[in-house]
From TrEMBL:
Name by which UniProt lists this protein: Polyprenyl synthetase family protein
Entry superkingdom: Bacteria
Protein's UniProt keywords contain Repeat: no
Species of the source: Streptomyces jumonjinensis
Annotated family: Belongs to the FPP/GGPP synthase family.
PANTHER family (UniProt xref): (2E,6E)-FARNESYL DIPHOSPHATE SYNTHASE, GERANYLGERANYL PYROPHOSPHATE SYNTHASE
Pfam families in alphabetical order: polyprenyl_synt
GO molecular function, one term: metal ion binding
Listed SUPFAM superfamilies: Terpenoid synthases
Alphabetically ordered keywords of this record: Magnesium, Metal-binding, Transferase
Region feature (Disordered): 1-20
Length: 369
């Protein structure tokens, strides 16, 4: 796994093909896959949001980027749309039409955005997708209420299908949501601890990110009639893909370019997050690791932390890198990516669908935002 040498802005891992002579993803149009996910799911997503009582419908529309803070139509950044793309592909794994996966795609997006609304408030994040977050524009109460409403809508949307498959899909979605909430609770608790093990950090990130991606890539298949073994195998792919995704996110959370990420410089360091690079660096035990540990322990007690300069955060980032946290995390992203791809060998599916799932996994790990 290689990373660029720039200080910020070019931190994404590169994931070479396991066998460069045989590139099974050649010709896969990632942009088209993501756009198909948006095109099929967005009308259903908008219709679901329209069910919300005022002013929650307007607040949700702002969050999704459909309107600006004054209520005027906008064309905001709605995110990467990886989860909808995965949900539609998962329906095709079992021979169903991609449209079969649309209710699952929308339900997963609703849960994902429920978590974003709450996470932004809990983390004190003021920017998401290059705009002020909902809690900053509309207040904490609306961020909480709209998040809760989106979660309720997700379950409502699936159960309205009235099929056995919809019931099975809902059970998987609620289990994934519980895992996601467990992960957020762990993440918050880690901020108040001096030391977190790598194993604890991976468990937290598996819950916080892996669980919902696992659900996304199985829910369409379940709606298409997949048996539990097929759905569980797809979930394994999604879970490890989620860990790879989060490892890259952790790199971007420290070294990402704010222009690309839409967040502050050194954003995870500002929030005292025990992300993978930090935890791996602290576990290394060398001189840089010990110095980093001393600084972070002092930071936790400092009354001036909020006014730290760019240079002070840069020092911490440099120590993390010197202690190997950046390189270890990039290697972990590659390892989890490989495990995700290997999981696909456990079930039969059309060659094109497999190539698209592999290409999406590559896209998730090689990114700048």
């Amino acid at each position: 796994m290689s990373l660029s040498t720039g200080t910020r802005g070019e931190t994404v891992p590169t994931v070479p093909s396991a066998n460069p002579a045989v590139d099974t993803t050649a010709g896969v149009d990632i942009a088209a896959l993501l756009e198909r996910g948006r095109a099929l799911s967005t009308p259903v997503l908008r219709a679901a949001v329209d069910r919300l009582a005022a002013p929650m419908d307007t607040v949700a529309a702002y969050h999704f980027g459909w309107i600006d803070a004054q209520g005027r139509p906008a064309d905001g950044d709605g995110g990467k749309a990886v989860r909808p793309a995965l949900a539609l592909l998962s329906a095709e794994v079992v021979g169903a039409r991609p449209e079969v996966g649309v209710p699952g795609a929308v339900a997963v997006e609703l849960v994902h955005n429920f978590s974003l609304l709450h996470d932004d408030l809990m983390d004190g994040d003021e920017q998401r997708r290059h705009r002020d977050t909902v809690w900053k524009v509309h207040g904490p109460a609306q961020a909480i209420l709209v998040g809760d409403a989106l979660f309720a809508l997700a379950n409502e949307l699936l159960l309205e299908l009235g099929t056995v498959e919809a019931g099975r899909a809902t059970r998987r979605l609620t289990a994934a949501t519980r895992g996601l909430i467990d992960g957020q609770a762990q993440d918050i608790s880690f901020e108040h601890r001096e030391r977190v093990t790598v194993e604890e950090c991976l468990e937290m990130e598996g819950n916080k990110t892996g669980a919902l991606l696992a659900c996304a890539v199985s829910i369409g298949a379940v709606l298409g009639g997949a048996d539990d073994r097929t759905a569980d195998t797809l979930e394994a792919y999604g879970y490890h893909l989620g860990l790879a995704f989060q490892a890259v996110d952790d790199l971007l959370g420290i070294w990402g370019d704010p222009v690309a990420t839409g967040k502050q410089t050194w954003s995870d360091l500002r929030q005292r997050k025990k992300s993978l690079p930090v935890v791996a660096a602290l576990a290394e035990g060398g001189a840089a690791s010990r110095q980093l540990g001393e600084l972070l322990a002092a930071d936790a007690k400092s009354t001036e932390f909020a006014s730290f300069s760019e240079e002070e955060f840069a020092v911490r980032a440099a120590l993390i890198e010197e202690a190997g946290g950046r390189e270890w995390t990039s290697q972990e992203a590659r390892r989890q990516h490989a495990v995700a791809i290997e999981a696909l060998d456990g079930i039969e599916m059309p060659d094109l669908v497999r190539a698209q799932l592999v290409a999406l996994a590559d896209f998730v790990v090689v990114r700048k935002k």
